[in-house]
């Protein structure tokens, strides 16, 4: 038993600690415990697990993660106004909530996870840094990572880019290739703007990314280089858009690299699946 049920409603907590939502920190809070518990369950089963939560704010999702059985939550929040509200949750569940006052972008999340035996990251991410955080986690140097699963809220439009394949050409891009290479990503459910305080202008989606311990082999920096060049001019044929790679990779020949990778040189970036980009990355000669 813990004291979570005795905690006051979140709206009262936010009023008492005067946590007026700040746009600069991407603060759109969730107060509905049914919804935060649904998100926590989506990350589950959590029994006995340690979870990292990015941006707990006043702690709505934090409470839900603990209620749904997480053995421990490590919560990272830069807004010092939220720390007292989070401390009340820590008091209600002794030893189960560790609060790190800081910026998640500046932290090595995978090192933190391995120190604590954390297996998942769950977050209602601030919109302004959500994509940067996801890219940083997926571009981790050491793979497989200690984390197995990410359950994250994004704007619907970003969620669609994360899960896109060449069939959804407008959404398919560098982010889709990175996510498709190192994870299996899917949209779990949408959350309407009205669920947030204050309501944002857009619909949000909860996305699950199950990290792939054994992605198709290629060097991360090579995959980043080919997708950057290919999608920078996404409407051009690849034999043209990849020409610029010669500066970093002397001797690189787009035509023969594409043919060796099984891609028609007349194809465009948005037509090539993840496996094609991996094969292409493997054709890059040693970097200058
Ligand atoms: N989890 C809470 C909820 O669901 O109600 C708050 C979510 S709110 C969309 C985003 C939270 O991320 C805010 O509490 C904000 O202060 C925090 N945040 C903003 N930038 C951050 C960063 N760089 N690192 C960690 N947290 C950040």
SSE blueprint and pairings:
Blueprint: H1 10-16, E1 29-30, H2 33-42, E2 50-54, H3 60-67, E3 72-76, H4 83-92, E4 97-100, H5 109-116, E5 118-124, H6 130-138, E6 149-155, H7 156-163, H8 174-182, E7 183-191, E8 196-197, E9 204-211, H9 220-232, H10 238-241, H11 254-260, H12 274-281
Parallel strand pairs: 2-3, 2-5, 3-4, 5-6
Antiparallel strand pairs: 1-8, 6-9, 7-9
Helix pairs in contact: 2-3, 8-12, 9-12
The structure holds S-adenosylmethionine.
Write out key terms for the chains shown.
single chain, 288 residues, alpha/beta, Rossmann fold, Helicase, Ruva Protein, domain 3, 2 domains, 7-stranded mixed sheet, binds S-adenosylmethionine
How is this structure best summarized?
The protein has helices at residues 10-16, 33-42, 60-67, 83-92, 109-116, 130-138, 156-163, 174-182, 220-232, 238-241, 254-260, 274-281, and strands at residues 29-30, 50-54, 72-76, 97-100, 118-124, 149-155, 183-191, 196-197, 204-211. The chain is an alpha/beta fold.
Unreliable spans: none
- How many strand segments? 9
CATH architecture of the largest domain, please?
Answer: 3-Layer(aba) Sandwich
What class, by secondary structure content? Answer: alpha/beta
| Number of structural domains | 2
- The CATH class assignment of the largest domain is Alpha Beta
Mean pLDDT level: 96
Which sheet architecture does the biggest sheet show? 7 strands, mixed
**What is the third-level CATH name, the topology of the largest domain?**
Rossmann fold
Distance between the termini: 60 Å
Helix content class: 25-40%
Small-molecule binders:
S-adenosylmethionine
Classified in CATH, the superfamily of the largest domain is Vaccinia Virus protein VP39
Percent in strands: 15-25%
Order of helices and strands: HEHEHEHEHEHEHHEEEHHHH
């Amino acid at each position: 038993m813990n004291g979570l049920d005795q905690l006051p409603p979140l709206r009262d907590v936010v009023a008492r600690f005067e946590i007026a939502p700040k746009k600069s920190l991407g603060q759109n809070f969730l107060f509905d415990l049914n919804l935060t518990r649904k998100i926590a369950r989506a990350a589950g089963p959590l029994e006995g697990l340690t979870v990292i939560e990015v941006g707990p704010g006043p702690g709505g999702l934090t409470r839900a993660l603990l209620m749904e059985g997480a053995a421990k939550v490590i919560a990272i929040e830069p807004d010092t106004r939220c720390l007292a509200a989070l401390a009340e949750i820590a008091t209600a569940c002794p030893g189960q909530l560790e609060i790190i006052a800081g910026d998640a972008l500046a932290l090595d999340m995978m090192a933190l996870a391995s120190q604590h035996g954390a297996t998942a990251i769950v977050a209602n991410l601030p919109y302004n840094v959500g994509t940067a955080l996801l890219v940083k986690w997926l571009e981790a140097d050491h793979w497989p990572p200690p984390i197995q699963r990410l359950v994250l809220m994004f704007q619907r439009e970003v969620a669609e880019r994360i899960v896109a394949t060449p069939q959804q050409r407008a959404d398919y891009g560098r982010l889709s290739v990175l996510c498709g290479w190192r994870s299996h990503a899917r949209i779990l459910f949408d959350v309407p703007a009205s669920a947030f305080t204050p309501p944002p202008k857009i619909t949000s989606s909860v996305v699950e990314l199950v990290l792939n311990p054994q992605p198709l082999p290629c060097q991360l920096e090579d995959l980043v280089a080919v997708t950057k060049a290919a999608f920078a001019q996404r409407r051009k044929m690849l034999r043209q858009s990849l020409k610029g790679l010669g500066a970093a990779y002397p001797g690189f020949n787009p035509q023969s690299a594409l043919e060796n990778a099984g891609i028609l040189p007349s194809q465009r970036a948005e037509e090539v699946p993840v496996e094609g980009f991996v094969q292409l990355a493997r054709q890059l000669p040693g970097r200058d």
